[in-house]
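Researcher: Here's a chain I'd like modeled. Treat it as a single chain, no partners, no ligands.
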Amino acid sequence: MSRQLVVLTLAAAFVLTACAREETPAQAPAPEDITAARDAANALGAQLKTRLLNAIETGGPIAAIDVCNLEAPEIAANVSDETGLRARRTALRWRNPANAPDDFERTAMESFLSQIETGADPATLELAEIVTGPQGRQLRYMKPIMTGGPCILCHGTDISDEVKTAILARYPDDQATGFAPGEFRGAFTITKDLEK
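Model: Modeled as a single isolated chain. Structure tokens:
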């Protein structure tokens, strides 16, 4: 075989290999999956808010800390069981280490924060992507959580000493204070396994 033919053959093989390696564009999530994830996030938010407001009304902020500490994981587990999706909360500055974000969640929240800081309406923000990782293909959905009025009792800038003591007793490494009403607090995060 001539040297020129060998070079052309190798060049053709390189081009074919490069074409075979080309990534296909990310598949968009199905609209019904996005709707289901959005509904799960809304259900988690509504159930937590109702339970927290009831606790504050009957027992004050200390009772609300107990709800977040003891009942919030159960509420998330119930929403997960009811919807077939994994539902939870996360934050860039978390109180419970079990709520620390993974890389996908951290990147999404940093994007939300950046968009909010440049004037985006948080109520219109959400992220839905299909990602492939060690767990296989998954729908990942996130929606911002903003600091509401009652939230400042335990997450604000002027927390009573009694509340601070109660928080630190349950969460010695707490990072989740210093928020103002209307400030980005964290996100609801929903995961659906699509296939292994």
